[in-house]
Amino acid sequence: MQLTLSTAALSEAEGDLLVMPVFEAEIADAGARSQAFLAVDAALQGALSDAAAQENFTAKAEAIFAMHALGRVRSRRVLLVGLGDSSRFEVEGLRMAAGRVAKFAAKTNARSLTFALPDMPIDAAIRAVAEGLLLGGYSFRAYKTGKAAQSPTLTEAHLALPHGLAPTPEMEATLQDAIALAEATNWARDLVNTPSHDMTPTILAERAVDMAREAGLFAEVLDRADIEQRGMGMFLAVAQGSVQAPKLIHLAWKPEGEALNAPALSLVGKAITFDSGGLSLKPSEGMVWMKTDMAGSAAVLGAMKAIARVKPPFPVHAWMGACENMPGGAAYKLGDVLTSHAGKTVEIHNTDAEGRLVLGDILSLAAADKPALLIDLATLTGAIAVALGLFNSGLFTDDDEVASAILEAAGEAGESTWRMPLDARLRGDIDSPVADLKNVGDRYGGSITAALFLKEFVGKTPWAHLDIAGTARSKSERGYLDIGASGTGVRTLVELVRRRAAAMRSVD
Ligand code: BES
Ligand code: MN
Ligand code: ZN
Hints:
2 domains; Aminopeptidase; 16 helices; 8-stranded mixed sheet
């Protein structure tokens, strides 16, 4: 999809759809209408407001009203999309509305549209609409055949600046950043949606290396022998029940000159390409989506793709331990005691608590380089979805400043995130009678004991953990989300890097 900024008068815009986002008040009260709405309604001789009222369109969030333009404006159809109550409006509402528009365009075979940017800070509007259209236009069709395999028809979208505003290089840069971010997110979604037989640890590593080469990032992939040599006993144990070879993937953005020595950011992503549960086998209902158990690594990889464009003045590392969790003859067993990369021993009480084992080893490896901040993203526990529902990711950290920075970035990016307590009183739940730790706690606070387990492997490095088990996949079509991978995490990480880059540049 080609996106451009446009200064054309709305009534002169050519194409299939003329899209106008509207608040509830603009429908209820003619006096509250924007200049854009008034102008287009006038061109339609009042037919737009009349027809919308007749159809009981109230502009609640994401509601859509479409009518033929009757030849009174250049576009074939005029579309109103609801933004809901203006007093409770957040930029994310505009992103979701734009996503809905892209889906409407796909269903009605529209090829081109003009989207009237609402009257609000222009950079935020450009970002939200561009991201919403591109994310909403995504659907995963790689395994469809025939008509269903065809790409959506929408190939051209013009973002119309409010009357009197001329495009600036900053606006153009904002647009290009938003396009890159949405494309990186859609790329991450593809990784997650691809079934596990076509997204093995080896293939995931290949995708990562290909992306890194294209984006200009450092990349290395280590094999089983290297993982053994590094003493990553937990990672190896999880991998040993599968015929697929594990891969340790390391990508890095390395800035030039002095910046190479600046405090680094390290990102870690859970990369279980299929989680059967191992010998603690999952029931089919729980297993059917477990190709998505590498969504944390997909988020990290998508973010790295975008970060290569941001070019922050500090190094950013990405680490992933890719493997399958399978119940093969060589599988690790309940009661086994593993020795971790950090040296701590772990008694296995459930082979389905595999993510924390692999992550524990990867976190201690990443922490050895002493980054300024270490963040992991993981589809770690079903318990996080029980606690928070499917709309919020869970954030765990002992560091209040890190928590604020991540929550602010997530808020700006439109990825709802809620802080969870890393409550040390639950630490006793993962004591083992035999080893230093066991890999599961009590049923209560399951996402917290999982986070406390990870904490054992980061030492003194400032660290945050995002449990995205509830948010990595959408169960329904909603706003810019399709059923399947959401790509969650990419936008938060990139926003966080942008903010850290801006803060460091302002100090120089
Ligand atoms: N990958 C799962 C967590 C998960 C569940 C992700 C649902 C997405 C949707 C993880 O490896 C797992 O199986 N966790 C167990 C932990 C339990 C055995 C302590 C869980 O949540 O049941
Ligand atoms: Mn599991
Ligand atoms: Zn898992």
